[in-house]
Design brief:
The complex is a heterotrimer of chains A (129), B (499) and C (424). By secondary structure, chain A is α+β, with helices and mostly antiparallel strands. Chain A contains four helices and nine strands. Chain A has a single domain, classed as OB fold (Dihydrolipoamide Acetyltransferase, E2P) (Beta Barrel), CATH 2.40.50.100. Chain B is an alpha/beta fold and 499 residues long. Chain B folds into three domains: 45 residues, no CATH class; 254 residues, Aspartate Aminotransferase, domain 2; 125 residues, Aspartate Aminotransferase, domain 1 (Alpha-Beta Complex), CATH 3.90.1150. Chain B contains 16 helices and twelve strands. In chain B, helix 8 links the parallel strand 2 and strand 3. Chain C is built from twelve helices and 14 strands. In chain C, helix 2 packs antiparallel against helix 10 and helix 5 crosses helix 6. The radius of gyration of chain C is 24 Å and the shape is globular. The N and C termini of chain C lie far apart (74 Å). Classes of the chains: A alpha+beta (129), B alpha/beta (499), C alpha/beta (424). Chains in contact: A-B, A-C, B-C. At the B-C interface, helix 2, helix 3, helix 4, helix 5 and helix 6 of B face helix 1, helix 2, helix 3, helix 4 and strand 2 of C.
């Protein structure tokens, strides 16, 4: 089983965000990639896009399913993980590390407080399954 | 014991491009009886291509062998039962193929004078008439090329009618058990899709329906019988709920094979529906098409049907282009005429009583399979089924075997798999539609095969999970195909000199 | 079987249906007939459908010889009676053939990717336009007036209800080719796609490069349409286009009074995710051998539902197989020779007739008879068992009095001479 870093915060839609300064790194949780199975495509937003907390940010696809990625916090897309475009399998291999999705310049750092802690998230997915 | 099939040798065969070599040809043209022209001189050098790079060069016998070898890698109805749910894979009579190739029909040009097209037009008129009678609707267009195309046409008709009443409205209700084409169609017609849940018996939840239908509801798209093979017993009440708010009932006729001669959508509140001639009326699927998706409507939608409409005038059939309220064309010309010819031949061969008997046999076959398989597989919805039955893999999943695995193992027993993982409301769905085509012998072989697989799941789940074992091609890596799409042949890069 | 089902009679299987939905009488259709009498009835119908005429009709449906081998292949039950190849392990025949089809369409059109088929050219055109709308995020569609009139009608139907404005740009009255000044005037920053057909409806070969430059300069995509696929054997491929949508009827598909035909969409690689319809891709099986499967299905309705790129499901697979066999038989050399014969025949006929437009043409052209109306000429031709061209006034009022004529490799010299006599 995977390790859910305590420094990250988590959403009910299975994204994580890790905040450093005014930058939030966003990714998909281990649980989410496991549910999706082999990920074959990642659709990421354009740089500079303004996103709102809870709104679709992009999508990930397996062979037979598409799943939207929702922004865990509001902000501007400051960086995207281009490596995933050519190697979507990384999302299956290292979802909490190298396979982060985007970095957001936070519009409202306080929003992070609405999200679940690692312990809360693990309880949440335990109850969900 | 697998006694229906054994493995047999199959030929290996490269791609056409790989057997190609310069100068080989598979055609013969007559000698030119007019002076030759110089393409570059006639068209201008800038308009003329050098050659079609990479295009194959093969002989006639190589073409025959190539495609014959490829064909031997396909399963087909001609080889055995093809129980795909909601696909109605029934026998395709060969008489239909013969009549569609008669010279006047196969070579008729859509712009030839109507006076020289009376035979073709009579065929279209006869088919329209038969479909009106089968569905109980008032008017039919044969222009749509397939079921989804018919759906789009039908929803555009709804939109046009509502627009003429002042408001096209915003949303279309689609049950969660519906085919994906339904929501995709509603979106293409500019509507928002509102999903509606199924009740515990698998039918549309009438209370939920009543609470969702409002003045912005354009239509309900309902498949009847639904994708569980269950007749929507509340269809008359559903129609009342919709009609009371000025909304319409669209019926997806994909499962019409359960109703022909037994019940007619025109008699149970449906305003507009489509049929699939390549399902209910036996025209061949051909590996994915062609189809024909007639749309049948009640009188209030008739003025909006696509142009042109067939009409009779002074003893002659002809096309009427003067249709001011029409949604316009949905396709060039008049539709997939060759498919219409085949469907009419099927209807003529069966006649009224024969069509009804086919329905009875289709429903009987599905119910027989249900009884034989019920002790071995989970049946999530207990309501009586019509022409298809949906089991789930719930019992087998406990051993780690999923519906897709069981489906692949069926191939080893000589059958095409059932429809896998659909409808979405059944987790691990196994959707089985035998059609009237199958004899009791074939049904028993199929049931025996599934029962044997259920036992294998208990004793040797790995055997099932790694199936198929008997095919030329073993389980195909769909993940690799999607991650690094290779969608066309390209010549291999020149080989490096060995050093 | 009834007993196993717990039913006393077949009727019991339907006893759960509410009585008021049941049909309480037999269907009012004649009783079933024998194979013999059905065949006889269809022969009678076929005999009353223009048998025995020479025809110079084109206009999107072309009379080309159909090599016998084509029907030999598509009549094989393994191709004819199989379903969509979702179960790859037992559908390698169909999947391999689709892969070859996609490859040959790319070679013909100069595009990077092609789909497994659309219903026909007229529905491929609006689907290609909607691809451009999604790819550009713009909403306006501009189509040449010299695009097949019925294709434009279908485009209007598809676009109207999605709120996509469609505008048309005209043709030069002397050449019949796209009026570049009109195009330039109508192109704006909100234009997603320019639709251009070549050879166009009048048979003229458009200046694709120049139109592509104008189109791209305003940030729109060029959608290249074709109705006469044989022309691609000789004409330069539309490599400057972004999307190509066309009709393959000319590739051994019977005219069949208008269908079934096979459309196709091809495009540059970067528009792959916006493609509608099925795609076959190469991969490997568990033993590492080459295999094919349907792929990138997340674009399609059965997965993405209301967010799909199109609602298309059933396509024209068997008809596309006809085209594949046709392309294999003719091959690199044959398709060029076939196209060159078409060119020779059409130019032989055209040289004898008064032409309406001055522009390079392939196997179709517009004639403007002097002295007699198209109706009178058509009637005289019918007496000679010849179906003349298509009177254009119905589609283009300004071309009332003109006929669109086509001569393929099937046109015989004496028939063309006979037609020219009536014109003169």
């Amino acid at each position: 089983m995977s390790n859910y870093p305590d420094t990250y915060r988590y959403t009910k839609e299975h994204e994580w965000v890790s905040v450093e300064g005014d930058l939030g790194t966003v990714g998909l949780t281990f649980h989410a990639q496991q549910e999706l199975g082999d990920i074959v495509y990642v659709d990421l937003p354009k740089l500079g896009l303004q996103v709102e907390q809870g709104k679709a940010l992009g999508s990930v696809e397996s062979v037979k399913a598409v799943s939207d990625i929702y922004a865990p916090v509001s902000g501007e897309v400051a960086e995207i993980n281009d490596a995933l475009t050519s190697a979507p399998e990384k999302l299956n291999e290292d979802p909490h590390g190298a396979a982060w999705l985007v970095k957001l310049k936070l519009a409202n750092p306080g929003e992070v407080q609405n999200l679940m802690t690692a312990a809360e998230y693990q309880t949440y997915i335990g109850a969900e399954s | 014991m697998i006694d229906k099939v054994r493995s047999h040798p199959t030929q290996n065969e490269p791609l056409l491009f790989e057997i190609s070599s310069p100068g080989k040809v598979g055609y013969q043209l007559p000698a030119l009886d007019v002076p030759p022209v110089d393409p570059e001189g006639t068209l201008g050098a800038r308009n003329v291509r050098a050659e079609i790079e990479g295009f194959p060069e093969v002989s006639e016998v190589e073409v025959i062998r190539h495609f014959t070898r490829l064909s031997s890698w396909n399963y087909a109805i001609d080889l055995g039962m093809y129980p795909l749910g909601s696909c109605t894979m029934k026998y395709n009579p060969r008489l239909n193929e013969m009549v569609a190739r008669l010279e006047g029909l196969a070579w008729g040009h859509p712009y030839q004078p109507e006076t020289l097209s009376q035979g073709a037009l009579e065929i279209i008129a006869a088919l329209e008439g038969a479909l009106r009678e089968v569905t109980g609707m008032d008017a039919v267009t044969l222009q749509p090329a397939a079921g989804a195309h018919g759906e789009l046409t039908g929803i555009l008709l709804v939109r046009a009618l509502l627009e003429s009443r002042g408001n096209p409205r915003r949303k279309v209700l689609v049950p969660d058990s519906a085919h994906g084409t339904n929501p995709a169609t509603a979106a293409m017609a500019g509507y928002t899709v509102q999903p509606i849940g199924s009740g515990p018996d698998g039918r549309v939840d009438l209370a939920a329906l009543a609470s969702l239908v409002d003045e912005e509801t354009a239509a309900l798209m309902v498949t009847n019988p639904n994708t569980l093979g269950v007749f929507e017993n509340g269809i008359l009440q559903a129609a009342e709920i919709l009609h009371a708010k000025g909304a319409l009932v669209y019926m997806d006729g994909a499962n019409m094979n359960a109703l022909v001669g037994i019940a007619r959508p025109g008699d149970f509140g449906v305003d507009v529906m489509h049929l699939n001639l390549h399902k209910t009326f036996s025209t061949p699927h051909g590996g994915g098409g062609p189809g024909c998706g007639p749309v049948c409507v009640k009188q209030h939608l008739e003025p909006f049907l696509p142009t042109p409409r067939l009409r009779r005038n002074a003893g002659q059939w002809g096309w009427d282009y003067d249709r001011p309220q029409s949604i316009g064309r949905v396709r060039a010309f008049y539709g997939n005429f060759g498919v219409m010819v085949r469907a009419l031949a099927y209807i003529m061969a069966h006649g009224g009583p024969g069509l009804r008997n086919a329905t009875i046999d289709a429903v009987l076959n599905a119910n027989y399979l249900r009884k034989r398989l019920e002790p071995f597989f989970d049946l999530p919805y207990q309501a009586p089924n019509m022409h298809e039955v949906v089991f789930s893999d719930a019992r087998q999943a406990q051993r780690g075997v999923r519906t897709g695995d069981i489906a692949k193992r069926l191939i080893d027993y000589g059958f095409h798999p059932y429809t896998v993982s659909f409808p979405l409301i059944v987790h691990g769905a196994m959707m089985i539609e035998p059609t009237e085509t199958e004899s009791k012998q074939e049904l028993d072989l199929f049931a025996d095969a599934l029962i044997a697989i259920a036992r294998e799941v208990e004793t040797d789940p790995e055997l099932v999970k790694s199936a198929p074992h008997s095919t030329r091609t073993s389980r195909v890596d769909e993940v690799a195909a999607a991650r690094k799409p290779v969608l066309r042949w390209r010549p291999a890069p020149p080989r490096q000199a060995a050093d | 079987m009834l007993e196993v089902c717990g039913a006393g009679a077949a009727e019991d299987l339907f006893s759960h249906l509410p009585p008021d939905v049941r049909l309480q009488r037999p269907l009012d259709l004649p009783p079933g007939q024998s194979e013999y009498s059905i065949a006889a009835q269809f022969r009678e119908w076929a005999d009353r459908t223009a048998s025995g005429y020479a025809s110079f009709l084109g206009a999107g449906v072309y009379a080309h010889f159909r090599p016998v081998v084509v029907d030999t292949i598509v009549s094989r039950g393994e191709f004819l009676t199989s379903y969509t190849p979702y179960q790859a392990e037992i559908s390698q025949g169909t999947l391999t053939a689709i892969f070859e089809f996609q490859s040959m369409i790319c070679q013909l059109t100069g595009m990077d990717v092609a789909n497994a088929s659309m219903y026909d050219g007229s529905t491929a055109a609006p689907e290609a336009a909607m691809m451009a709308v999604r790819a550009t995020g713009k909403s306006r569609v501009l189509t040449a007036r010299a695009v097949h009139p019925e294709y434009r009608e279908v485009l209007h139907t598809y676009a109207r209800y999605q709120g996509l404005p469609v505008a048309e740009f005209g043709y030069d009255p002397d050449t019949g080719l796209a009026d570049l000044a009109d195009l330039e005037a109508k192109l704006d920053g909100d234009t997603a796609a320019v639709l251009l057909q070549s050879p166009n409806f009048f048979g003229g070969i458009e200046e694709v490069r120049a139109i592509a430059e104008l189109t791209h300069a305003r940030g729109a995509l060029l959608v290249f349409l074709f109705t006469e696929a044989v022309s691609l054997g000789l004409l330069r491929p539309p490599a400057e286009a972004d999307i190509v949508a066309g009709e393959l009827q000319s590739f051994a598909i019977s005219p069949s009074y208008g269908g079934p035909f096979a459309g196709v969409i091809a495009a540059k690689e970067k528009f792959l995710r916006q493609m509608p319809g099925r795609l076959a891709g190469e991969t490997k099986d568990a033993a590492g051998r080459r295999a094919f499967c349907l792929t990138l299905s997340t674009r399609e309705q059965h997965i993405r539902r209301e967010k799909a790129t199109s609602n298309i499901c059933t396509n024209q697979a068997l008809v596309a197989l006809m085209a594949t066999v046709f392309m294999s038989l003719y091959g690199k050399q044959g398709l060029r020779e076939l196209a060159t014969q078409n060119l020779a025949k059409a130019h032989y006929l055209a040289a004898k007739l008064p032409l309406r437009f001055q522009a390079p043409f392939f196997n179709e052209f517009v004639a403007q008879p002097r002295g007699a109306s198209p109706e009178v000429i058509s009637a005289r031709l019918l007496e000679r068992k010849i179906i003349g061209g298509l009177p254009l006034g119905r589609f283009y009022p300004e071309l009332d009095g003109c006929l669109l004529l086509c001569a393929t490799e099937m046109a015989r010299r004496e028939q063309m001479d006979s037609l020219a006599e009536v014109f003169a």
